[in-house]
Write a structure and sequence with these properties.
alpha/beta, two-stranded antiparallel ribbon
Length: 203
């Protein structure tokens, strides 16, 4: 039994808060793989900083006849070219950032290659980000669904786009902050493109 660790969901380009938790609780971190897929969460959406403020990017998923699909079984929809939209948005928002070009070639394939399952897609992006921010963490996964984890800090429902992040985030330089000010708890790529190899020190 992992004690004083944490259980976290698998998100799409997770917010900074997610990596703060990973950094605090590593290596005793479990990633939830057996839960039913909840709607309107960071599992298939991320927030980036655009010239007009916060922009949400959502990965469309195929809805089964029943909504009780395990998160690991949720398939990505390609009814429209969302990959091109997301990549153009990332380029438009971060081309002027200090480190975008540094990571661009490694991130681009996620918007060219098709992935069947959302979980696999998010997992491979998470592995890329962990490597990029130089956070050493071996990912371990839940084997069954447990409603509660008495010995773990459970963040499966607390890190949410519907809730204000409850941690004090120190401002860092963002591309559009002169225009509209610092935006808290955006996608980790906002930190990565602006802080590059210094991201891990920030976390």
């Amino acid at each position: 039994m992992i004690e004083k660790g944490a259980v976290l969901p698998m998100f799409y380009l997770p917010p900074v808060e997610y990596f703060v938790k990973l950094n605090i609780y590593k290596p005793d971190v479990l990633i939830e793989r057996e839960e039913h897929f909840p709607k309107q969460t960071y599992r298939n959406r991320t927030n980036i900083y655009s010239p007009d403020g916060v922009l949400a990017l959502t990965v469309p998923v195929i809805r089964g006849a029943k909504n009780h699909t395990k998160v690991k079984d949720v398939k990505i929809s390609y009814d429209f070219n969302w990959q091109r939209l997301h990549w153009l948005s990332l380029q438009a928002c971060y081309r002027r950032s200090a480190y975008f070009e540094y990571y661009e070639d490694e991130l681009a394939p996620f918007y060219e290659k098709r992935f069947d399952f959302l979980f696999d897609y998010n997992e491979q992006q998470l592995q890329f980000i962990l490597k990029a921010i130089k956070m050493k963490l071996e990912l371990n996964y839940t084997q069954t669904y447990e409603p509660e984890y008495p010995y773990l800090n459970d963040f499966r429902h607390t890190i949410s786009p519907k809730k204000e992040a409850d941690f004090n985030q120190k401002p860092y330089l963002q591309v559009f902050d002169e225009r509209i000010g610092f935006r808290k708890n955006l996608s980790i790529v906002d930190l990565l493109f602006n802080q590059g190899p210094h991201s891990i020190n920030y976390l």
